[in-house]
Amino acid sequence: MKLSFDYLSDDLVYRYEAPASASIPTANLMQTGQTTSYRTGDDPSRGRTVNFFTLSEKNPFGNTNRFTDMNGLQVYANNVIIDWSTLGSNNTVLLYYKGDALTYRNWNTAIDLYLSGTIAGLTTWYLWNVKEVVNVCNIANKPYRMNYAPFNFGSSQRYFHTSSDYDGTNVFITDLGAKITEFAGKASAYLTVYVRYTTLTELGL
User: Is 111 helix (H, G, I), strand (E, B) or coil?
Assistant: First the structure.
């Protein structure tokens, strides 16, 4: 909705119209993707079922796909995934990079890898945190919560580092097959996914 109002100055009436706010497509982040109800009171029985992959409004590429590549398609040639459900009123959206999801590293090495590196022409990427993991975990997807396109993380890609520190010695890791989050020592080697909050301008949109 566009804000407008009239105001009086020097005996003249002026009309102010605020710029239209950006449309914010959402896949309802507080919803889990579960569609099967097992009893009254569980999540799906509350009418909270949602299509995990479809937005309620079109993304800036003009389609309702929650996940696209940087061209608005679903090819992912550079392994960068845009999650349009994260598009905010500041026109910033979350990108995931899965191109290093086959390499095991300790936590400090994983943290440093792309802080000064470049992916798809964009600099400064971060290891995903716990909430950025949970955001793309489809609870209805069993047994591996991210074994779906475009991520396709199955049994061989189950354990990942996060950037979320547990107690200075240990960090939160994610087990995409069971607990989703637990903790482990920083010296332990796990897989990695990187993220970056990116403006529509940087994406050429």
Answer: helix
